[in-house]
Design a protein that fits this description.
mainly alpha; Arc Repressor Mutant, subunit A; 2 strands
Length: 109
């Protein structure tokens, strides 16, 4: 079949990474509206929400831990962390041994 004559829904069934694409598609169906609501209600971007969620579950994570957990680009997590620090939603602590600065939620966060 010529690729010009495929239906848009063929991407769900006729591609070499069907399972991965389907999982991503389903995830986007749910996360897209959720991301919009979180942004409208609390002014948080997706990376900001992910950062807060990670720190709620595992206080004391380093920035690189959050990047590894969520698979988001380092620069987007860094930007979101700077915004969260400015809003006083998170705080950094000095670490012993130079292993980075652990991050924690504040009362506002």
């Amino acid at each position: 079949m010529d690729h010009h004559h495929r239906a848009p829904t063929d991407i769900l069934t006729v591609n070499p990474i069907r399972l991965a694409y389907r999982l991503n598609y389903v995830a986007n169906v749910y996360t897209g509206p959720l991301d919009k609501e979180v942004e409208q209600r609390w002014g948080l971007s997706r990376p900001g929400f992910i950062t807060l969620f990670c720190l709620l579950q595992l206080p004391g994570l380093l920035a690189r831990d959050i990047v590894e957990i969520c698979g988001r680009p380092k620069n987007s997590i860094s930007r979101s962390m700077n915004g969260l620090l400015t809003k006083d939603y998170i705080r950094r602590e000095d670490a012993d041994g130079g292993r980075g600065q652990p991050l924690f939620l504040t009362a506002a966060g």
